[in-house]
Amino acid sequence: MRTRILVAVSATLLAVTAARAADETVATVGTVTITREQLEKAVKPQLIEVENQRFEILSDGLDELIAEQLFTLEAKSKDISSEQLVQTEINAKVPEPSDAEVQKVYDDNKAQLGGQTLDAVKPRIVEFLKQQKAEERHAAYVEELKGKYKTTVALKAPKVEVSTAGRPARGPESAPVTIIEFSDYECPFCKRAEVVVQEVVKAYPDKVKLVYRHFPLDFHEQAKPAAEASACAGAQGKFWEFHDKLFAGPSLSPERYKAIAAEVGLDQAKFDQCVQKNEFKAQIEQDMADASAVGVTGTPAFFINGRMISGAQPFEKFKEIIDEELAASAAPKS
Q: Where in 168-287 does DSSP place strands (E)?
């Protein structure tokens, strides 16, 4: 009983301290005061970005410390030095790059090589490939050692509470991972990211639910009309069909929206009326306000179980975070 009372008192004191910190005056202009809460709200996007960067640095540093400790334990078990272990288990197991691999790197980067021949740049390509293979072998060996020496990580990534707001979703409702996407149909980076998003949904059909929310940028003339048109299609149960065709098409225009409406089988009269009356204008503006409130300043932006990543990231970045979240959801609760 005493322990419960102490916990309750501590929680109360923390709440009071937090409230006082929020009310703290950080500046005055004439008779107007600016509080810490106002300040932090104004710079929230930058604070979230800094917190994410801080976590990445801590996470990378922790990975290095874990690997170092695993190597020390394994070297001790074999009665050799850590350096000898690296030599025998990593360096000695890195294969020489094949001619086909060298040729592929050369072909993929020919435009940046300024006309240099394969023979001229081959030593650099071989060195690059060997370093790449060594890093892959290092990562694989660390995972092997984690299986031998129980390793747990308690470092938690920063998370932001983001509402799905009842917006269109793909994937099972009970999926352990929810990805909330804020995007813009006229944004070239969003179009590039869409390919990766579809790859993610395909790779995790039973594990990921994707929710789409709008963040049309002011300088994209057709972004908001396209968002409203897609919402009108959603009112007839055809959001995703309309959405996919918007991103797949070469351009955006009112004529294109009408054409897509016909292609996906919408009631044209209802669709036209919905678009004309801007029936989903308030919903789009709510998406934009919610995005700004959680630190979104550009598109695309994604929240994977509340973990924010910005920009057109590769599939591997999504996979890394999704796999971490799946592992966390599968771990026994203490």
A: 169-170, 177-183, 208-214
Q: How far apart are CA 130 and CA 133, in angstroms?
A: 5
The set of residues, in sequence order, having a beta carbon less than 8 Å from that of 53 and lying 6+ positions away, is: none
Q: How far apart are CA 298 and CA 187, in angstroms?
A: 10
Give CA–CA dist 296/290, Å, rounded: 9
Spatial CB neighbours of 26, under 8 Å, sequence gap ≥ 6: 34, 35, 36, 39
Distance of alpha carbon 124 from alpha carbon 102, whole angstroms? 10
Residue 57, CB-side half-sphere exposure with 13 Å CA sphere: 6
Task: Provide the residue type at 182 as one letter.
Answer: F
- Higher pLDDT among residues 2 and 314, named by residue: 314
Residue 29 has pLDDT above 50, yes or no: yes
Read off the tokens for 266: 């919408």
pLDDT at 293: 85
What is residue 158's three-state secondary structure? coil
**Residues found in the chain:** 334
The model's pLDDT over 188-227, given as tens digits with 9 standing for 90+, comes to 999 999 999 999 999 999 999 999 999 999 999 999 999 9
CA distance readout (Å), 133 to 3, 82, 219: 54, 20, 44
Cα 261-263-264 angle, rounded to 5 deg: 70
Residue 177's DSSP bridge partners are: 208
Q: What are the tens digits of pLDDT across the range 99-152?
A: 999 999 999 998 888 889 999 999 999 999 999 999 999 999 999 999 999 998
Closest CA to 151 of 74, 58, 75, 55: 74
Distances (CA, A) of 276 to 110, 252, 257, 285: 51, 17, 12, 17
Closest CA to 100 of 126, 131, 68, 138: 126
Q: How many CA atoms lie within 13 A of 305 on its CB side?
A: 21
Q: How much is the CA Rg of the chain, to the nearest whole Å?
A: 26
Report how far residue 175's alpha carbon sits from residue 156's, in angstroms, rounded to the nearest whole number. 21
Residue matched to tokens 């501590």: 10
> How many angstroms separate the CA atoms of 286 and 198, rounded?
25
